[in-house]
Amino acid sequence: MGKDQYVVKHGDQWAVKGAGNVKITKIFNTQKEAMEYAKTITENQKSSMTVQSKTGKFRAKEASSSKKADDKKKAAAQKEAKAAAKAAPKASEASKTTAKKAEPPKTAKAPAKTAKK
């Protein structure tokens, strides 16, 4: 997974900058152009984009569609693993029960009758 991308105000222009980077990746005349460019990066890197508003506040993060798909796959795999882990003890308990039922019942032997003379 790549770096998240930020669309930030840069003087009278807009810039795209990778998370933690000191240098700006690219400068644009409009916020829309910067967002489109950042979106292509986030799609390639399976990361997220955060956009700064004109007032300086950041909007909510937008995950790329490829990142969203990966996140869904991971969540489904984790859910499946949890279900399998839950089912495993139940299956072993069931086999123990089945094994107990398969054993022949224990019966007390009656004492052998002796013939009277």
Protein architecture, described:
The model has no long low-confidence stretch (mean pLDDT 79). The chain is of the alpha+beta class. A five-stranded mixed β-sheet has the order 3-2-1-4-5. The N and C termini lie far apart (95 Å). The chain is rod-shaped and about 120 Å long. Helices cover 45% and strands 18% of the residues. It has two helices and five strands; from the N terminus they run E-E-E-H-E-E-H. It has helices spanning 31-45, 65-102, and strands at residues 5-10, 13-18, 26-28, 48-51, 62-63. The protein has one domain.
Using only CA atoms, what is the Rg? 33 Å
Name the shape in a single word.
rod-shaped
Number of domains: 1
Distance between the termini: 95 Å
Structural class: alpha+beta
Q: Which whole number gives the mean pLDDT?
A: 79
What series of H and E elements makes up the topology? EEEHEEH
Number of helices: 2
Strand order in the largest sheet = 3-2-1-4-5
Largest sheet: number of strands, sense, barrel closure: 5 strands, mixed
